[in-house]
Structure formats: C-alpha cells, structure tokens
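[SOLVED] Need 3D model of a two-part complex

Original post:
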Amino acid sequence: MKLKASQVVMECLLEQGVDTVFGYPGGTILEIYDEFELHGYSKKIRHILTAHEQGASHAADGYARSTGKVGVCFATSGPGATNLTTGIATAYMDSSPVVFLTVNVGESLIGKDSFQEVDITGITMPITKCNYLVRRGEDLADIMREAFAIARSGRPGPVLIDILKNVTYEMVEYNPLPLSEHHRHGKLGQLIARKGHDLKTPEPDHDDVTMLVEMLSDCKRPLVLVGGGVIRSKGAVPEFRRFIEKLGCPVASTVMGGGACPGDHPLFTGMIGMHGNHASNVASHDCDMLIAIGCRFSDRVTCDVKTFVPNACVVHIDIDRSEIDKNVLTSHHIIGDARRVLELLNERIMLREYDFSAWRTAILSLKEAPLEHNDNKLLPHEILETVSELTNGNAIIATDVGQHQMWSCQYFHFNRPGQLLTSGGFGTMGFGYGAAFGAKVGNPDQVVVHTTGDGCFRMNCHELATVQHYDIPVITIIFDNHTLGMVRQWQTLIYGKRYSQTTLDRGPDFVKLAEAYGVKGYRVTNVDEFRAAFQEALESGHAAVIDAMLDMDEMVHPMVAGTSPVTNFLLD
Amino acid sequence: MPYTSASATRQTLSVLVDNYAGVLSQVSRLFSRKGFNIESLAVGTTDNPEISRITIEVIADEQQTKQVMSQLSKLFPVRSVKRLEPAHSIRRELLLIKVKAETREIRNEVIQIANIFRASIIDVSLGSITLAIIGTESKDDAIEGLLKEFGILELARTGMVALERGQYTLNDESKVKGEYDYGKLML
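Solution:
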C-alpha cells in the first residue's frame, strides 16, 4: 500500500512494539509529529515532550536500560540534533540500545548551510554503533528495521537515523512485516545471509569454553569480575549467579555490572577500581586468575593498567571481539553472548568442584564493617540505607555523576539488572533526571529514585516541568554539599586544597525551584527528617525533590588515584 | 602517533568494505582517532561493485596494528581486514611526475632516465615532460630523486595498492572474522 513516509515511520515503530517516544519537535520533523494528530498515532504511541532534547535522549536511554527494550528519541535538525549528542555518546559508552530519529533539511537545501542544517550523521559517526542518512522514501522501512535490529542485537548501542525533510512527505510503497520476519527481508536479510553462521543462535566456541574449565582446575585464587555485559545480555543474570555459586570464589563488580550479583551476596566483594572496596581491589592484586565477564577494563577499573592484576592470567568473556586485548592483555578469551557462555560453563562445572575455600575466606574477611551513624549531621550512607529500607531494596536508582553516584553504587544493594541506571562510561552530569523519568515511564510499577548532586541537578533541572506535566512520580534526592564534591575531593587530596571553581555558593533554593514547577520540595538536615520526607514523597504518588544538606568535605572512601596500582589507597 | 615505539614499521592493511557514501570517512577517521598518521591510502571498487577495497599504510608496531585491525573489524561496513606481509604480497603505486624540460638536451636526458626506470612518457610540451611510473616506494623515490635536478613542476601519487600473493583472498572465512560479527549483529 502507498503511505506517506512519515506514516511509514510510525508503522515501523509499531512493528517494533514501540509504545513510548521521547522527543522535541521542530521545523523539519513536523511531518512526523503531524502523524500523532493526522492519523491518530498518539493513541498507540505515547509521546513525552521534554524540556530539552538532552533530557529526551537520556530518558530514552533510561527507558532502554530499565526495560531491556529499545528506547526511541525524536529531534529536529540542527540544534535539536546536536543537543542529542551527549545523550548518544552516553548510550554508546554504556552499550544502551536507543534509536535516535532526526529529520534534516530537504535535499535541495543540503550542503548549503541552510537554516538549522547540520551534518549529524558525520557528527555522530564515532558515537553511534551505526547511522543512516535516508535520502529516498523507498529505503525508509528497510532502514528502520535494520536500525532497530542493530541497536538491540550483539553488543547493543545507539543508532541514529537522519531523514531528509523532502523524504518525510513522499508517498512510498509500504508492506507491513511482522518483527519475526525482519531478518529475512531487505538489506538486513542480505546482511545476515552473507554471514557464514547462523546469527540467531551464535554459539561460543566450545573448545574455548572447555579450555577455561581446564584452566580453572589449575588455578588456586580465581576472581570473577562482572561488568555491564551481563546486565545487557537477556537471561544472563540467573546463569551468572549459578556460575558463581558453583565456583565459590570471590566476585567483584564494575559500576555497570551493579545488580548482576546481589549486593548482599556472601561471595560479593563489591565494586572494583578507583572507588572500589578493599576486598575487591586486594583480590584483584592477589588473584592468580581473573575471569572478566562483559567488561572492558576501563581506566576507572584498572587504575594503573601496568600493575593491574599483576599475579594473574586474564580470561576475558565478551561479545565484542574488539574488546579483547584492548586495554589489558589476556591469556584466553571466549567470544559470545554472556548468557550462552555461562550456560555452557555451568554445564561443564559441578557445584563447588574446585576448592577455593582458603582463598575465599581470606578475601571475604576483608569486607568492610557496616558504617557508623552520626547524630550531628546527615551522612550519605544513611540516605541510601533509608531509601533501601523504605523501598525494600527494590527501587530503581538513577544517578547523575560524582560523589553521590559512587555512594549510590557502594551503599545501595542492587539485586537485579536494570535497577542501577548510571552513566558509568561517559560520566555524564545531568544524565540522572532524564534517565529516572524515562525508567518510570517504562516501569510504572516500580519506585524510581533519582540521586543527584547540587551541581548535576542544576544541569537538567528544567525537566521538573516534564515530570510535573506528565505526573511522573520520580523522587529526586539532592546530595547537596554546595560544591562539586568529587572534584573538590580531588582538589583536597591532590591539588593542595585549592578549590578552583568548584564551590557552588549560589542559588537556586531547590525547594522553591521545585515548587515553582509545581513539584513538592523538602529540605532535610538529618536522617530522621530525611526518612519522614522520603516516606511522605513515596506515599504521595507524585514527583518530589528532597534537598539533603551534607557536609562540604564529605568524601568517597576508599579512593585510588588514577595512575596508581589499585591497592595504593589514597583514602581508606 | 599515540606513542612512538622502536619496533614500529610500515604496515600494509587491506580492508574490504561496503561501497556506500561515508565509508571511507568512517575508516579514515578511525585512524586519526587512534592517533595514526596515514602514510598512504588507496580506494577503489573490486570486481563486485558493492564492495570497495581500501589499502592503507601506517607506521605502527605489532600491538598498535592489532588494535587498529580490531577496531576496523568492528565497523559496520567493514567486511574483512587483513595485514599484508611484505614477503607474501605485491604492492604497487602509480606516480605521475611533470618535469621542467625546456631544452632538447634536457628532454633527451629525461627520456633516458624514463627508459632506465621503464617509465612511460605520457605528455610532452615545449616546456615539460610528464612521466608515469608504476612501482614500489623505493623505485618511485629513486626516480623522483633523479628528476629533482631538472625541477619537478608537479607530482601525484595514487597511494599504494596491494594484493596477497598466491590464491589466498581476503574473503576467506576465519574463526576470528566470525567472532567480530557477534558484537555487530546477533538476533
């Protein structure tokens, strides 16, 4: 049947089962936005209008991370498109599946520095898994199907589709195609057909798996390091938990791996790296074998890469072959989907087949004692422990970046994939609010808490308008220390207490700001006030902002400087 | 360069890519992003019009070469990447040189040099001679050096193209190649 290309866009979204789109309209994308009204697509697809395109990009990302579905984000040409770039890079660094759709100026205006024209496919080339410029209406459906397949499959990632304005009002032939048939048709079909093996069930090399099993019987002090790959791989978490139970060795996690291993699991030594726990970092130093699953050895994990795991051979399990030997040289690797690799390992390993008890006891004895309380001031861990207690540990936590992010990762025990939404790779301040309401839209039954700092919240606090308008009950907790805390911490420890441009002795009054947007605001100075405010916000069923006043010199413990070995703690 | 290593040598990489707009820029940007200066780059379609072959030469050590090949393999339009070992490959470059030749004696001398190097003379005017030479960089450099004496008016190189000797092709399936596909697209 012949349809207008803008309608084909909507039909292709419906083929993918998309029910929510985050975005912001503008001149060139009008044809597509018109479909919400003209052909009534607003009944099938909910559009959330944000205050800024960046907020929309983070919301689509948060939606994707928390639901496991592909997030979708619309923006117009030029500044609309460039405002997405921080969100695209954030999604790329954390392998989050998001399809970004922008409309560029028409063919006759391309390359003429027209109003709101920008080469967004060129700009996003290094921060997308793949991107497309659609110049002909007949290619549109094919490209949309391919884009979604690429975003969600393999190592997931953002994909950008830029459509020319004149294409959006072309009449094109559209043949509906159910999702299950997509891989047999069009360019996607060709792409898959030319691969020598079956992409639907790619099998890790069995010999590679067996070799790891053999290596395990020779090692005495193994450490498992879990990364975001186990979170992204569907169904991998139960297999992972079975695997660590069988192995019975210490398990450390990267920031992105939070939730793969239950936070209170006896084998779990916590986060590794710059703000990693003693137990994890010491284990990484002492282990004789590191089994890294779905992680990419970022500099925040390895610190000084030359001294990382000095006594161990590294076995790397990842879906992305280009991660092998990129940052850390490995002795062995297995390429494949984490779920399938772990399944094969579990088939080959008996429960506690190996005896690592001495090593296990030595490392687990290093786990830190619970932190103390202080009646005189509010402490970061008290906030997170209270949130955990009042939400039975089930809340989705979306963080911004900085001290509160590390505290959230350290003190909240994550129990499932998609529970921690944080910009681990790109470290995007301002990520949290968008991600939080995106997650709430995707998970209306879950409590969603947004932890942020006063610096981060200022970056995207205009999204208060969005949560208020759509009545999205996200509870924002500002870890308000009137400073860029993480940078101040570095200045204290490394830069001789010269607090250059980090003191935030300025407005706004966040309680009044929230109220100006019609959102309830609270200011709390001790844990009892916090508990009461959080309880009230939880029960109200609406968005709220809790401005939690903290000491300016609160620090994230422990800390290792970026260029030091992971066991050289700057701070205990 | 990211860091200059003593063991860095000239590496020839042959890359098969899908032939559509933007692919060359994607590939060449990867090199600049990783801090490599491209010594030579040549691109053209293969016997299959949908596929282009990009031949790239960079100065890199073993580890850097592996890295850049790995990152190249990850790109969507890249079908395969291979390092061509000097001993097992043939490399050629076409060089056009326009030499100043205003007198009969000079023209004769240039023609003699061209004959020695088996270069062809493709254009002659009263003031200049243009030569075409196909060879490796040592031959090209040698003739360039000789002709400098007369004054080179203009010079153009195509960049090195290369193929593996024998019946091997870049299309050979390998386990490693299959592994890269996992991360790109697995349904």
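Edit: The CA atoms of residues 10 and 115 of chain B lie 29 Å apart.
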